[in-house]
């Protein structure tokens, strides 16, 4: 069984978004439709694998990370996509990954 937290846009009540850097968002296809079950990977600034979660039924994903430069990569049956993000500090940072 996967040890990753349940994915979704709503944070658990025990998470303080003023202290945590949260990377969250949704995987979508070219038409903007949610892509459930995509594997979403978090890569550091050198491209090294850091973590992976499976997107929820509505395509949502979430990671807790440090401020800095990260790549969010989605792999799915609908295609693959990625985006580079640079959260500068604590808070909820929301991104969309389009797969093609």
UniProtKB/TrEMBL annotation:
This is DUF1416 domain-containing protein. The keyword ATP-binding does not apply. Keywords: Isopeptide bond, Ubl conjugation. InterPro entries: CarboxyPept-like_regulatory, DUF1416. Residues 79-100 are annotated as: Disordered. Pfam families: DUF1416 (PF07210). The keyword Oxidoreductase does not apply.
């Amino acid at each position: 069984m996967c040890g990753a937290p349940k994915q979704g846009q709503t944070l658990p009540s025990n998470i303080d978004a003023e202290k945590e850097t949260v990377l969250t968002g949704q995987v979508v296809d070219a038409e903007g439709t949610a892509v459930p079950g995509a594997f979403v990977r978090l890569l550091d600034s050198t491209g090294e694998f850091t973590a992976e979660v499976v997107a929820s039924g509505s395509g949502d994903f979430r990671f807790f990370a440090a401020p800095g430069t990260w790549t969010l990569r989605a792999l799915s049956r609908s295609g693959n996509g990625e985006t580079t993000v640079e959260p500068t500090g604590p808070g909820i940072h929301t991104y969309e990954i389009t797969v093609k």
